[in-house]
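[User]
If only I could read backbone structure tokens as easily as an amino acid sequence. I have put the entry right below:
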Amino acid sequence: MRGTALSAASATEIVSYIMVGLTAQGKIASWDAAAEALTGFAAQDVTGGDIERLLVAPTPESHRAIAALRAGFAARFGSLIRCKDGGFVAVEIEAKARGDAPGAISLRDLTAERLAAGASRHAAERLKLALGAAAIGAYEIDLSTQRYQLDGRAAAMWGRDPGESVCFATLADQVLDEDRPSAEAALAAASDPAGDGSYATEFRIRRHSDGVLRWLSLRGRTFFENGRPVSRIGVMLDVTQNRRLEEDNAHLAAIVETTGDAIYSLTLDGAVKSWNPAAERMFGVASQEMIGKAETALTPAELQGEAGTLFDAAKAGAIVRRETKRLRRDGSSFDVLLSIAPMRGRNGETVAAISVLARDISHEKRVLAQLEQANARMAQQTAELDAVFEALNVPVTVFNRDVAIARTNAAARAVWGVTPDMPQPLPFEEVAAQLSVRNSAGETIDPAALSARRALAGESVAAQHYQITSPSGLKHDFEAAELPLIVDGAITGAVAVWHDVTEARRRDDQASILLRELSHRSKNLLSVIESILRQSAKGSVSKDDFVARFSDRLRALASSHDLLAKTNSLSVSMTDLIFSQVGHHWEPGQRRIVLSGLGVRLKPDAAQMIGMALHELSTNAAKYGALSNATGRVSIGWRVDHEVESEPMFVLNWVERGGPPVQAPERAGFGTTVIQRVAGQSLRGTASLAYPEEGVAWTLRAPRSSVIDATQQDAPRAERIRSPALEKLQALWINLYRDGKLPRLDDLAIDEIEPQDHLIVADVDNAINPPAVHFVSIGKALVERMGLRRECQDIEVSETEILGSEDGAYRRCIRSARPAYEYAYFNLTQGRSFFFERLLLPLSDDGQSISRIIGMASFDDSASAGAN
């Protein structure tokens, strides 16, 4: 539009006042060139027209003014007039009073003034908006009064009220002492009229209102009159946050420059944007070489895909950590831990770049691999030590500082009477309540003595003797050693190691008894030999007959004594004694001699007397009785008769059948004397000898206490099962024993029982009496240890070929239909001797009658070494 197209300067140059003539009726009478220039209308276009037609959007004010003007009165008003091109111009219309005479009006162009006023208002508004957007405060100071006028934002920065007039000294007092000199210097320089009066300074204040520390930045100008500063105006900005960011950035920059990790950034196109010194050292590439290049140049070919995936994930806003490989300048690869994260723009949302932190973990990986190998070795060694610890036949207990049992091995648990699944730690008081403890003097002591309390106090204890009766009733003699466990100079617990000296003490006691017994037995032996000598001489018909009789009887006597030496014991198995005297008449498989009796052991004197009687009986049977032909049989049976009013009696029977007809001898010789009188009287009992035609019958009756060694009736040493394999086999049998029915062989899953080479499997023949067993299999270890034949053979229950010396275990198993266990010492020929632990279990096909026996044996060679 025309009016709006003119600048304020050009309008002023055209005309300042334009005169328009009016008729007495207020019509336009004249229109000069200036009016035409201003509006574009020619004189002929407007002459005779009403001035109101030129006005744009008349207002009530303009209507009143035009009415006054038509009436000849003075009028003045501002309005917009139309231009020929459709635009408009702002003018001031003024007319003086003229009455009824023609007159004139003046038009003053207001375009320039209005443009200037609008520009001023816009500038002020823009400044206000800019100050508000930037949180900038404005201030003025009258230097003659030294008082500040602060706007709202500036007042808030100083902790003052908006519009408050503040003394300069009040504000200056809040500036920190260390910053005041530089601020005062800047203001002083701005007060010099030789300069332009501008100033800029930054300082810290501590507001009086709340004690908060802030950074302020001031910019302003000093105004002068007559060469003197009179006022200042300026703006101020709180730059505390910026200052803190600068400090943080400085810290971050220092970290980036000095860290040992490679830190670099990438553009969204994957080009390197920054590259710190650690990256130069790690990759061997200088910053100026790397910036602008793609990071993929340092990625192995096989990992390019992975690198792209990680980069895309970071671009999508994810933070990624990944162990991978990168290349050095020389092409060698190394292990790195990458931390990749997006760098966001000012809005906090748009990803502007990608930051990468790369840590060389090659050394850590090598160390970790070495640690894993070391841990594996340690785990293996720990497992080995745990296995050794558990397998030790020496009880070992570890106590913690609270005197609780922290760890035990199997041997110790057997003493404590606890199971492997015991609570850990186990309060010692719970265990001690079940124990009975004696010291070396045999005095009962508090079980708390076993709690390693002296070791926990720092004392090392050695060779402390205790006799412990465990919850199962077994007695053990121990030599205890206790040591404190010290870690970093502090006692953390204690370990107690107990050496079981029960056997050693038993052997010592046995040796002492043997020495006393040797003296007693030597005297008795001399008396017996003297008696044999006299009786043999009395009944002999010649010198040679005397020598033969005397020698046979001495050999029989020696056999009885040999048994004591072979078994290293003060007692003799009844079956062993029988075979020592009649074994030379034994014919395997023919069952001419049948034994029947309990597994008992005889006292030495009883073995000597009964051995001599058996020798005489077997000699007579071989010469004249049942063993002198091919059809005769001898039955030897023994029992303990409890059905008497006094002490139980030991009864031994010798019965011959199937031999030649028997006649009583015409005279009683030494043998008959031994059989009838000596054997009975020496044992405080009686012996009877009868000669029925069908065969000789001899019976010995003597008090059980005179014959049987009750302390070793079943075996030299009866105690708990030691072997874990035997315990497992017995537990398996017990689990299968239900409602009084015996398990079957198939129920035991015999192929899964270990160790296989220690197993015994036998069939039981109940058709004969006593029952016989047929060995289906005997483990290789037993065969080799016992020196047996591998092939199966029928053997009667009582034979000594049943895995060594027979002590009644098979008969007990068959008679009771229950497991039979023994722990015995065997002294075989050719120097072979060992402690032998055996468990026999009855099995049945129908759940009632015993049809099979399965057994397992274990050899205690450590004890054997001590015995030998």
Q: What stands out?
A: The chain has six domains: 2-117, 134-240, 252-360, 392-500, 522-712, 724-867. The radius of gyration is 64 Å. The first helix runs from residue 2 to 5.
